Amino acid sequence: MPRTARPPRDPLALVGLLWEPSTRVGRSGVTIGSIVTAAIGLTDAEGLSALTMRRVADDVGVPVMTLYGHVPGKAELIELMLDHVAGATYAGHDVPGEVGDWRAGLEHIAQRVFEHGCAHAWALEVPPARPVLGPGVCRTYELELAPLDGIGLELLEMDETLTAVRSLATSAARWQVTLDAARRDSQLTDLEWWELVGPRIAQAMRDEHLPISSKVGQAVASAGDPQRTLSAGLTLMLDGLEGRLQAR
Amino acid sequence: MPRTARPPRDPLALVGLLWEPSTRVGRSGVTIGSIVTAAIGLTDAEGLSALTMRRVADDVGVPVMTLYGHVPGKAELIELMLDHVAGATYAGHDVPGEVGDWRAGLEHIAQRVFEHGCAHAWALEVPPARPVLGPGVCRTYELELAPLDGIGLELLEMDETLTAVRSLATSAARWQVTLDAARRDSQLTDLEWWELVGPRIAQAMRDEHLPISSKVGQAVASAGDPQRTLSAGLTLMLDGLEGRLQAR
DNA sequence: CCTCGTTTCGTACGTTGTACGGTAGACGCG
DNA sequence: CGCGTCTACCGTACAACGTACGAAACGAGG
After folding, report:
1. What residues contact residue B48 under an 8 Å CB cut-off, 6+ apart?
2. Does residue A245 belong to the interface with chain B, where contact is any CB pair within 8 Å?
3. Shortest CA distance to A161 belongs to which of A149, A172, A173, A171?
4. pLDDT tens digit string along A11-69?
5. What is the pLDDT of residues A210-241, one digit of tens each?
6. Cβ neighbourhood burial of B161 (10 Å; 0-12, 13-18, 19+)
7. Close Cβ partners of B160 (under 8 Å, ≥ 6 residues apart)
8. B window 41-80, beta carbon within 8 A of A
9. What's the pLDDT tens digit per position in B160-202?
C-alpha cells in the first residue's frame, strides 16, 4: 500500500452514499453511477488487482483526481460496487419466493449465489472489512427471506438458515474460482498437474502416515467438484430442516 | 501493486518449498522457518496490510533483499504462512478423532476452525489464489477426516461433509472478524452504531417496502451473532446426516 | 594467495492511493 | 455586459510498496 491504509473514515457518510445515489452531474459529466459502473465492468473483466483509480478514471474519461470529487476513496468505491452487484443477484432470473416451496427456494438461492459469485469472482476476494448495508444487499436479503416466511420458523431461525445456505454457496464459489484461476495461470490440465505434483504428495503421504486422506484424496481428485460438494452439503442441511419442520 | 502482480510462477517449486523446509542457514543466519515465523507473528498482531517485505526483514533483522535468497517472493511467503497456521489448528487442543462420536467430532471441528479463524483473521483475507497443499493442510485434513471414517459414508461423502462443516465455520469466522473490525475502528458500541444508522435504514426499509427483512433484521440486530448462527446451521446439517445414517 | 561459486544486500524503478492547492468554469448581482 | 464569489476540477507531488539488477563480500579448494 502507498500512504494509504485509510479504512472508510466516516461510516455515516458511507451510508448516505449508499442510500442516496446523488445523481449530481458536475462539469466533467461524471456521476457516482458512471464511476461504479465502469469500475464493476473493469473488475469483472480483469480482476480485483486491475481495479486502479487511474484505470477507472481512464475508462470514465476523466483525470484521476476528478473521481475524488464524487467518491471519498477506493475503499468506499469498492463498497458501492459490492452493494451494486449484491443487488443484482436475481436480475434476469426467478426470484426465490416464486420457484416453489421453501426447499426449492433455498436450492434456487444456493444456485444463484454460487453462479453469481463465480461471475463476480472479485467480490469474493475483497477483504471483509465492514458490513455493507446498502439498498442492494437489503433488497436481496428481502427476496431471499421470502421462501422462509410463514413456514413455522422463528425470526432468528430464518436468518440463521439463510446465512447457512449462503455460507455453503459462497464457499463453494470461492473454491470454484480458485480452481479456475489455478487452471488458467498454470496452463496445465488437471491431469497434467496431478502427474507433476501427485508423486511428491503421495510420497509425503506415505512418510507422514496419512491413511484416510490418502484414500479420500484420491476419490476427491478424480470426482470432486465445488458444485457437487455444494449440493451435497445443501441436501444434508435441507434434510435437517425438513425433519425439524415435520416434528413441529 | 508495484511492478508485481507476480502470481507464484512455478507451482512445482512451491510444492518443494512447502514439503522440504530446507533448513539451510546462510551467512546471515536466516532460515525459511525464521522468516515464516516472523511474518506470522507480525501479521497476527497487525493484520495483513502490515505484512510488508520490509517489515518482515526488519523483524528478522536483515535487509529486505536478503529475504529473496530464501523465499521467491511475497506470494510464496503467504502460502507458507497459510500452510503453517493450517497445520496448527489443533495444537494444544483435542484432536477431532478423540472427542467422542462423529457428531461430537464435527462439532469440535467447527468450533476449532471458528476460533482458529478468528485468531488468525488475516488468513481469511488472503485472496484465494491456488489450492495450498502443504504438510500442514494435509495433516489437518487427516485429523478432521478421522471422526467420519468407518461410520458408513462413501469416500466422497466424507469429503463433502467435512467441507460443508468447514464452510459454515469459516464463514462464521469471517463474519465475526468483520464485526470485530467494524467495532474496533468505529469506536462505537453496537447500540450507538444502530442509533446513528438505524433510522436511515429504517426509513429506507419503509420506502423500499421490505416487510420481512424489517422484522427479521430487528431480531438479528438484537440477538444475532456469528457463533450462534454457526451452531444453528451446524445443528441443521448434523441432524440431516444423522437421519441419513439411520436410514442405512 | 588466488580463484570461483554462492549468498548478501544497496540502489533504483515503476506503480499505487491520495493530499494539496492552483485554476477555470458557473452563477448571482449590479 | 462586467465582476466578484463559490465550487468543481485536476496537475503535480509524495510516500510506500514489491522486486530486478548487479556489485560486493564471503567461504572453500587449489
Report:
1. A127, B122, B125, B126
2. no
3. A149
4. 777 888 888 777 778 788 899 999 999 999 999 999 999 999 999 999 999 999 999 99
5. 999 989 988 988 778 999 999 999 999 999 99
6. buried
7. A224, A228, A229, A232, A233
8. 48-49
9. 999 999 999 999 999 999 988 888 877 777 788 888 778 878 8
The single-letter code of the amino acid at A224 is G
All three cell numbers of A130, joined, read 465492514
B7/A127 touch (CB, cutoff 8 Å), yes or no: no
Q: Is the dihedral of CA B141, B144, B149, B152 positive or negative?
A: negative
DSSP element (H, E) containing B139? helix B135-145
Residues comprising chain B, all counted = 248
Q: Point out the residue among B160, B193, B213 whose CB comes nearest to the CB of A142.
A: B213
- CA-CA distance, A186 to B241, in Å (whole number)? 37
C-alpha cell at A2: 502507498
CB contact (8 A) between residue B205 and residue A16: no
The partner residue sitting opposite A142, judged by closest CB among B124, B129, B210, is B210
